[in-house]
Amino acid sequence: MADDHGIGQKSRNDLVLSFLAVRRAIGALGFFLPVALLAYGLAVGELLPSISSAYYSPMREVFVGSLIAQAVFLWSYEGFRPDAGDLITDRGTARVAAVAIALVALSPTCKDGCVLPDNATCTLLQCLLRPPLASLVHLGAAAVFFGALAVYCLVLFTKGTVDGPEKDASNRIYRLCGWTIVASIGSIGVLFATGLDDRLIWWRPVFWLETIATFAFATSWMVKGDALRPLVRGVAAMR
User: Can you give the pLDDT at residue 102?
Assistant: First the structure.
C-alpha cells in the first residue's frame, strides 16, 4: 500500500513538472522570437517594420519555426481541469491560441498593395485565399492569439484562492501583463486604422508594440511555470 502511495505521488509530481515544462517552453519561445529579430536588426543595421515582416526576410525560417513550435506546445497544454459550468477553460483557450498562431505563420501578411515581393512564392493558404484575404486572415489570427493570451493573464492564471503573498504578487504580475497585451494590440489597431503606422515607420512602432505584447505574455507564462520566482518574491516584498 505504501508503495502504491509512493508511485501515485511520483506520478502527480511528474505531471506537475510536465505542466511547468510546457509553460516554460511557451514563455521561452515568446522571448526568443523578438530577441532573435532584434539581434538580426542590429546585425543588418535596420529593424524590421513588424515581427510578421520577418517572413519576407532571411529570418523567415526562424519566424515560422518559432510560431509553429508555439502552436504545438499550446495545443498540447491541458492546464487545470475546469470547474462545472466554466465557459472559459485552460485547454479550450490554449487550442484557440494554437490554431491562431499556426494561421499567423502559414498565412503571412503582405504589403505594397498585397503584391508579393520579387522571388517570393505564395504559401498554400496564400495561393488558395489570394494575398489580400490571406493578409486579413493573418491579422485576424494575430488578434485572436493575443486576445487568448490576455484571457490567460486576466482570467485563467488569476483563478484560485489567494493563499499568500506570492499568489497575490503573481496575480498582480498576470494582470499587468494582460493589460499590457490589450493596450499594445489596441495601439497597433489604432495605428493601422489611422495610417500612422506608415507615417511613423522610421520609428518601427508596430514592431515595438508587438515586442512589448509578446514579452508580456512570455513573462506571464514563465511566472506560471515557476521560472521567475525571484521576480514574484520581489513584487511580494513591495507590499
Answer: 96
